Amino acid sequence: MGRGLMVYTNIQEFINDYERESQSTLKLLQVLTDESLKQEIAPGGGYRNLGDLAWHLVPHGGILDPTGLKVEFPEAAAAPASAGEIAQAYRKTAQSMIDAVRSQWTDADLQRELNMFGQVWKIGLTLDMFIKHEIHHRGQLTVLMRQAGLPVSGVYGPSKEEWAQFNMESPTV
Known about the structure:
Keywords: Metal-binding. This protein is mainly alpha-helical.
């Protein structure tokens, strides 16, 4: 296990972290517009756009599949054309994730080991990687939101717009 990775040993600790992180993600998703979903990552497309990335933030299984956790995931594989649908799907799936962890696992389950990507991971580590995966893509989302001309809310501190609401200039780096 590398630096910066943790193994959750307590269900409530994970739920507290995921509730906080998912609220930050949902806050950003609620700003998206249907038009902004078309914002390309790079000119000419071919990979993903903002809508695809936003939809990728909605849990669809993936890293959680080997854990056996039963979560209500959206059925649609492709991103909807509606920003509201993406935000609603995220809200519903994040709550389903919290409810599933709370009802299906105990603290002892977090110590169970599984084969993940050819490595042995405890479920508690898998949950940490799940959250870090979301944080990583949420950062990418904020860049695309800026490119699309959308306001960005602060996650771990005030955004440019929030500094302005405080009648302060955002710090320079």
